[in-house]
Specification:
By secondary structure, the chain is α/β, with parallel strands linked by helices. The chain has one domain: Rossmann fold (3-Layer(aba) Sandwich). It is built from eight helices and nine strands. A six-stranded mixed beta sheet has the order 5-6-7-3-8-9, with helices on both faces. The protein has a three-stranded antiparallel beta sheet with strand order 2-1-4, with helices on one face. β8 and β9 form a beta hairpin. α3 crosses α4, α3 packs across α5 and α4 crosses α5. The radius of gyration is 20 Å and the shape is globular.
Amino acid sequence: MIEARDLWKSFPVGSRAAVPLLQKLRALARREPPRAVEALRGVSFRAGRGERVGLVGTNGSGKTTLLRTVAGIYRPDRGTVHTTGRLATCLQLGIGLIHLLDVRQNVFLYGALMGLGREQVRRRYDAILDFSGLREFEHVEVRRLSSGMIQRLTFSIAMQVDADVLLLDEALAVGDQAFKNKCYDWFEHGLPRDRTVLFASHDLREIERFCPRTLWLERGAVAGWGDTAEVLRLYQARHGWALDAPALTA
């Protein structure tokens, strides 16, 4: 279960080191408040056990900040977020991998970071390599893999974690169509029904296909929350995208 109540999160604008000393002193003399951008503005939602919730919004709308706040990577300025059960994340391409290590070594390393014991990784190792399609690259350093191959590796490990809550941020964005089809089949048939999923994607067809309910963020605030078909209709209308466009990937 995920429950967020009135989440606010802001970040300072610009690098403090880049501000000249004289400018800093003048700002202090005028008692100017530090500049900041609000990434989340009063976001509230609840996803129950086994719910698959989509997360949509244009770039900079706060999707990644929300996912990282739910994951505990960021601490909200105000509000609360609560999750129950074990959490697994796939939030940034290649994060947690050591690019000087080979694929096999990174499977054990990333598996440990995701909470899997060494024996658990060993039992699931073949399944991870088979799903990722990287069997022939088992002893190749990760730095020599393409971004799509790295994405396939991280996602294939994350899906083997016995998590109660799964957070995905553009998890299939750089995968080729064959890998996407394999992931779609896993979403529909292999994903445990009691697993709660929060899935951010710019591919609205993916959201429509897998998520009965969707949260729409606009400039850090909730612009829509509820039935996916209705939220996506309003989302596209707001931005002037044709509802019957052949590609719903703005």
